[in-house]
Amino acid sequence: MRMVTVPGTGECFDLHRPGAVAAWNRALNRRYAMDNLRRHPSGLVRRIEARRRRAVAALVPPFDRALDLGAEDGSLAEAWAGKGRCTVLLDLDAAMLRRAARPGVAADAARLPLADASFDVVVLSAVLEHVLEPEAVVSECARGLRPGGRMVAYVPWDGAVVPLKRWARRLGVGLGKLHDGLAPGHLRTFDRGRLRRLFAPAAARVRVRLDPLSLGYYVAATAPESGGGDA
Hints:
231 residues, alpha/beta, seven-stranded mixed beta sheet, globular
């Protein structure tokens, strides 16, 4: 994937040019920020989004420090705020972070400006389908985990979402401004096997669960207790 567009704007980006990924991300956020789903005109979409947020939060264990990667305005982190002392937000779009009520870092997820073993939990919700280098992102998240820490990820089940949207249109089910085909900003699709292969090199244990009711896969990947665990 090299050239991408932002639907409805006519904006086009060559993602291999310096600065283009950040500019594309900002353009997407202006129209398609994830938090829009909580206020979506379709009650069905709002229920699916609420279930996703609950499912992600349920996978977050008690922690001292957590990192919400791709945090946007930090609204998702509120779902697990009572489980730990501090959640740091990280997003490529500094403007989104300025809307948040907690500390944030503007940075590329594939090149985290963070010390090794800094966090007990790293959350990647609706992130991996948007990035150019998912392997690098997972590797960086694993580097930032303390021994025995956990990566928590949500990835949409695009293999079902795309045909479901098509059938909903045919049946006249109102979905507001949801786009046919892959959602704006999705660069790739995942299934259970691909997610397991993505996380296995960086984890001692990997669990991947498909929840059809929230149209997504949920990953809990546990770091080795000490260097060199088995995948």
